[in-house]
Every structure is written in C-alpha cells, then in structure tokens.
Design a protein that fits this description.
Largest sheet: none
Helix content: over 70%
Radius of gyration: 18 Å
Mean pLDDT: 80
Order of helices and strands: HHHHHH
Strand content: under 5%
Number of strands: 0
Distance between the termini: 20 Å
Number of helices: 6
Shape: globular
C-alpha cells in the first residue's frame, strides 16, 4: 500500500515538475493544475494508476485483475462521457428549466451506469470486493488531491 502511494506521489511530482519547467519562467510561479487541461496522455496515466490502486486495494488475484481492469476502464469511459455532457449542459445558454431537466436525465444515466456495472463487476469479483470499489475510488481521489496540493 505504502509503495503504491509512493509511486503515485513520484508520478505526480514528475508531472508537476515537467509542467512547471516547460512553462515560461515569468509564469512558473502562478501555475495551477486544472484537471480539464491535463492532456490525454496524463489522464491515461492517472486512469492506469487508479486501476493499479484498485487492484491492490481490493486485493485482486491475477484472474480477477485481468477480468476487472478492462471492465472498469469501460465503466470509467461511460461515466466520463456522461459527466462531460453534464458540464456542457451546465455551461449552455438554455433556460433554467431545460438545464434542470437535462441534468436530471444525465444524473439518472450516471446512476443507471453505476448499477449496470455493479452487476457486471459481481460477475467477475466477489460481492465483498465490489462493495469496496466506491470507497477505494474516493480514497484514491483524496490521495491524488493531497499530492497535488502539496
């Protein structure tokens, strides 16, 4: 566990240092990390680190890991797509009533995706491990944010 956290911190520090050193020196002190501006490659690295963290945290064996990882990646892709749609609706110039209706529909889609994938996860993992996924995801996010804020 501690090894994974250390690797995560090293990766994030490497990313931060690379970002700062590549910027114009005049702006180096005002750099803020904005997740919407992270390039696709870095988002992919974070996704890979998340999956590795989950595999370790859930104590998945090789068979469970090989079945879970692609399934979890597909889950994250669907969730990300709907969340992007929510951002688009929030930033639109539509009426408030229209925004609320669309946002509620999209939030329901998120719930439906989560429910669908919980069932799929239960096909490849014991229910005890499936029940720990959300808490492990939140723990990973906390560690990531803590590392970035240092």
């Amino acid at each position: 566990m501690k090894t994974i956290i250390n690797v995560l911190i090293i990766c994030l520090l490497t990313f931060s240092i690379t970002t700062v050193t590549s910027l114009n020196a005049a702006y180096a002190n005002t750099v803020t990390l904005n997740f919407t501006n992270i390039c696709q490659d870095d988002q992919g690295k974070i996704e890979s680190m998340l999956i590795a963290y989950l595999v370790n945290k859930l104590e998945l064996n090789a068979d469970e890991s090989s079945a879970f990882s692609p399934l979890y990646s597909a889950y994250r892709k669907e969730i990300k797509s709907v969340k992007q749609e929510i951002k688009t609706v929030n930033g639109s110039s539509e009426s408030a009533a229209s925004k609320l209706t669309k946002r509620q529909t999209l939030e329901q889609q998120l719930l439906d995706i989560k429910n669908t994938y919980e069932g799929k996860f239960q096909q490849v993992l014991p229910i005890e491990k499936v029940a720990k996924i959300a808490a492990a995801e939140q723990e990973f996010k906390s560690i990531l944010m803590e590392s970035i804020n240092r």
